[in-house]
Amino acid sequence: MSFTIELYSRGEKEEEYIGCFLTRIIDDSDFEGEIDMKIISLSKDDPTPAYEERLHFQSENSYGLSRFLKREDIEKDYLCYIVLTGSGN
Asked: Which InterPro entries has this protein been placed in (predicted)?
């Protein structure tokens, strides 16, 4: 089985949240299996598991959270030291 991680920085459905999904890549295999999925939010103060679950994948399955993290929390906790400047096109 092969997977992709899909991140929606402006949300899958709601812009104020970041969405995070694990999606099985469609192939010709009829193999099914279980995986342990753990998504960890590593803040500067506390590496806390934000989501943890054992998943049973079949073909064309996708699992995750459309409200994984709130954008304002990410901006406050992670982007407070990043400054981008520039000019031109």
From this structure: TRAF-like (IPR008974)
